[in-house]
Amino acid sequence: MEMVQREKTMKALVLGKPALVETNPLLLCELPLPQIGEEEVLIRVKACGVCHTDLHIVEGEIPSHLLPLVPGHQIVGVVEAVGEKVKDLLPGELVGVPWLNRVCGKCQFCREGRENLCESALFTGYDVPGGYAEYVATSQEAVYKLPKGYEEEELAPLLCGGVIGYRAYRMSGVKKGDTLGIFGFGSSAHLVAQMAKIEGVEIFVFTRSLEHQNLARDLGASFVGKAEDYPPHPLTSAIIFAPSGNLVKNALLYLERGGAVIMAGIYSTPLPEIPYSLIYWERSIKSVANSTRQDIRELLDFAQKYHLEVKTEVFPLTDANHVLQLLKESKIKASAVLKVEA
Ligand SMILES: [Zn+2]
Ligand SMILES: [Zn+2]
Questions:
Q1: Partners of residue 31 on adjacent β-strands
Q2: Average pLDDT in the 204-210 region?
């Protein structure tokens, strides 16, 4: 009994059952400090980004895999302890944990370096506990060293917004002199706009929110409007970040021959019926599913080479329900981050 009473605990926000965020479904709980296996790392969380995927998980638009669940998959923290078989990670190091947590390593997708498609993949804050907590224990394969020159809260949005945005951006195939259309302008999009700018790609941004329109202009978009506003010239390719399937039609309407529409979200409302003429001329529609480890490394290298301006709004961990509500109402300007004070 004595031992149990002295056991160290941590604060965590726990989803017992998916429900609308307005009902405050995340409960502040006192949980035992996680134990680590020999290939696991215990991380003291400093900051955790809040992603649209968290919103879809909490509200049940994406089916639950693990309940009760501690969400959060853009984790920045300090290594507290490492298992016996952990290599290259030392207590005190600042590290990050993204959405992709573990894969089987054996299936055809894994063998081809397309582990983002692994059918046995486990995701942080979905299949395994996430970072809306003071501590998280996670497999060493999900732990990454982080670029220098950023605040802890600026690093968090890179781990999903940045990574998924980077994969979507590369999949769009745009290069110097091309024009990229961006539909929806939140955490991921504001980082993609910068990647495009750095590589000499012109950016057209389509978003309803006036605040997001202003941010897009600040970050160098040469055209900013609503989805139904025709841009001054066609798009080479487009990325859709907003979870609205109808945007596919707008994107195709504005798309150059041979262009791609990349859907970057894990969730979308249904796609509309589209006349074949809109997709003819070798236009394509493709979704982004998770990211490979290579994407994560490349994005972190990119962020080290070119300093990305990560626009954050920082809240205490205990505000998670409220932050998810703000995200749902498009009231977060760019990236929402929970700051954790253990
Ligand atoms: Zn696999
Ligand atoms: Zn995410």
A1: 10
A2: 96
